[in-house]
What does this fold into?
Amino acid sequence: MSDHVTPAELEAVTRPPAPHTGLSRWLPILDWLPRYQRGWLREDVTAGLALTALLVPQGMAYAQLAGLPPITGLYTSVMCLVAYAIAGPSRVLVLGPDSSLGPMIAATLLPLLAAGGDPARAVVLASVLSILVGLFMIAAGAARLGFVADLLSKPTQIGYMNGLALTILIGQVRKLLGFSIEGDGLIAEVTGTIDKILQGATNTSALTIGGLSLVILLVLQRLIPRIPAVLVAVVLATIASAELDLEARGVKVVGELPQGFPPFTVPVISFDDLGLLVAGALGITLVALADTISTASAYARRAGTPVDGNQEMVGIGVANVLAGLFQGFAVSTSGSRTAVAFKAGARTQVTGLVGALAIILLLVLAPNLLAALPIPTLAAIVVVAAISMSDVPGVRQLYRTRRMEFWLSIAATAGVAVFGVLPGIGLAVALSILNVFRRAWWPYQAVLGRTKGVPGYHDISRYPAARQMDGLVVFRFDAPLIFANARTFAEQVMRLDAAGRNPNWIIVAAEPITDIDTTAADMLAELIDDLAERDTTLVFAELKDPVRTKLEAYELPSVLERLLFFPTLNKAGKAYREAFGTDWDDDEPTDEPAVPAPRPDPDPQI
It folds into this structure.
């Protein structure tokens, strides 16, 4: 954002509209366009032209990544920019072909294409896939299902994206080397690529132009980030290709593009193809949704505004439907293109409209401008995008701080690399859900004691000097009590009772227990009976009122009559001292929060 943008001006265009019941609820342009100020036009136009320099080469590169003709990337870019300007709630997000969706689109289309592939049929299938993604997005937004983005946890997102980056990198090597291979899956592609290299199939001219393009992209991005590296690489590679006639040397080029406005087309497919397209669309929807919500949240934080996640889904859904009706493919929010627009001073979605208009002018007035652009240069653009997708530092941080989540990330990476992109996203979602279930099934548990001079009650495994009162065990269970962990809770309590201290009371520090379901309630009834046979009483302290109300509603006499309740641990401790005449032999505790524990426990388990 340019330095002279005032917070008031930014807020005026980025704040979400007040709730509406009319068309402006679904068409945010009706809210922001009447408030548009003439002084913003110059910056929107400048940002839009800067954005075009990225839109054109990336659009064609990501179309190739999806297994589609380069022109479809330009058609897609135009229509999704126009659609999101009308239906998208954010004033700065930029939609377009995305490197993370390209392999998913290709994986969905490949089983439906005949050997060798038919480009025309691939375009039709990709258009239907885009429409399906759009309809799923719109339906999810209308039903306010934005929370489904949470099905991909951060560790599995990191792992999935790393696997995707690895898949993309392997898939682009052959384009950089100037040959093609027959292979389905990462292992087949690796072995096929190695065989071709050993057979001497590498095209030196393709490798040279692709390698130089890659160097330009990486060096300029690192050393002079203000210069549009993609534009420089594309211009230089196109000039070199034309001057040296690289096509005659066996280097594939983009070739002549169709002239004119993106054609309106209603894609028609057979019913037999629909099943695979629906499955692929669901996976693409989930990934696009998670990517969009995270990107929108990041830029909303910069602008100090909330995120309208449901309307974001509607906006992206409309963009996908419109793209599908003009020979386009599925799109998502682009972090790189949004960053370019944001840094260039974009105020509103007029920036996207300017970018769309510039692409249309290119198609109408100069469709052959990029005819000599080498395919290895597009491959280099995709390689750089794949490198930016990977998050090796994130994996290292997980290894240092959360070992279990590190292995979840590695499993997600392996799932994508070994089983493929679409099964990989399914595995990533399953791992996320299993990780949540694991935490509920085996939550962190602790026996608490008191440390002299440190207020509160603390985990004795982290405070070895903590004291326990004779005949009393204070036990904390950091999860709601539900069917999945009821047996775990009961077994741990019984182990504490049989551990040799012969407790009179076992006090459960119940503040972390946010729910008790019927299975857990029945477990408590049996547990109270089992403890009573050993002359031990079960006590709950700090149980939340709504949870206690649920427990009372189950109408279990043994629980309600024999389970003791106290509002705080201090009161429970005082009651125990009065009943049994014991003491801590140290300072009186308080209800003040405890200081942080001295030793970290990065991934606590039972």
Observations:
- Residues 158 and 394 are 7 Å apart (CA to CA).
- The two ends are 49 Å apart (CA to CA).
- Residues 7-153+201-376 form one domain.
